[in-house]
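Handoff note, outgoing to incoming analyst
You'll be picking up this chain. Sequence as last confirmed:
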Amino acid sequence: MKKLAVIDIGSNNARMIIVHIFDNGSFRIVDELKEPVRLISDMTQDNIIRPRRIQQLIKTLLMFKRLCAANEVVDIIAVLTAAVRRAANQRSFLDEVYSATGINLTLLTGEQEAIYVYQGVINSMDIDAGVIMDIGGGTVELVHFEKRQIRDVACLPFGTLTLTEQFGTYDKVNPAQMEAIESFIKARIQELPWMNAISNLPLIGVGGSYRNIGKVLRRKKKYSLDVAHNYYMTADEVKSVYNGVMKMDLDGRMKIKGLSNERADIFLSALAAITTIIDHINCTDIYVSCAGLREGIIYEHLEPQLAVKPVPSALDFSLKNLSGLYNENEEHAQRVAQLALSMFEQLRQLHKLPNSYARIVKAAGVLHDIGQKIRYYDHHRHTFYMMLNCNLYGFNHHDRLMAAFVAEYHRKDEPKKDYIKYADILSGEDIEIINRLGVLLRIAESFDRCMSGVVTNVSCDILGDSVIVKTNATMDATLEIKDALSSSTIFKKAYGKNLVIL
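Most recent structure output, in case you need it:
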């Protein structure tokens, strides 16, 4: 196993994540540390980073090094973003930090930073086209992508800290201030010809400001799923937060449920930038990405080719990683997924579900046993929890929840009480679909009851009031067939047909 630390030093904060990379190629983030540094706050007029800010960063990096030492981490990748690009004392700053910490900092260009953000997003979300916006303390990175490939990139020279300082939006504001900040942002955006040509594409938001907006909205609507990544927001919802925050002073913002206190002073300027861009590109759909620059660096470190070409499916990429991390028997999990998918394809005439549901069946099949990492008994319940809380990428919240329920179903009858908790996300029709898909997974696991690949494939025929499943087996499959037939009752309830297995 290899251990790696990635440090990202921005204008607001310095963040470090520690990653374990296993011999099978899977990886897991095992620790994270964040400290406010605000390097460009109170920068002098001639763009000199003040000594006290430098000392704060040095103190933070030494703390990061102690955590690395405690975790036996030797390899450290440390990057600087917007904070130092425009600093007049850039060279002396880098030398002083290296002399004090021994950490070699790599100063990224705006384009490099945007590309790493794109790599983090595109390899963790299955969205074909859109605009990525990463808003930091000193800059805004924008990436326009089509067919999952970069088309345009820009780095705008303002961010939450610089806007807040320039327009004085720390505390109570008046309409003139907000009109001025919006006009300023709009003028900078209009300087980008490609941004003027974009319309109706989804906006993918990266950074603490977007995460906080999502959290505020989830708290407000009492959203049942506590997951930030790929959280969906409408433009009207984001604007409602903006309009509410504009009426508050700093004390009022500090009391907003879901808003981090350390971000309360710069939150209004962030909202001004975000809503101005939403209006400019006529966007209605916004998604929060919790994967960005640091994840982009990790992905490139794991698979250098991802710097050139992203994964075709973020879901498949994350399933491969999670399977390597948590499946004690990967071959069994893959066989169960394949058998369940085969039955799904052959029974289309009955369930009448589109291809998109095959992704749910696949994810549930591959991950159905990961709960055994916690405990064998009730592992279906542990699987459900893990699928909601691990880095299962490529799904929206609705499909992720459905996949978790389908996986839970493989050892449990219909979890009616559990459905009630998520009534704001799942409909009655969704529950019926979960039951139909869940019983297929349950039968598929029975077909590999001995985890030895006895049943290699199945063929399904719909004859009158029965579904006849013929098994192809390498040896006697009496145990597997008997176990699969124990699902006959729930199969008939889900599909209205008798189950016959030969």
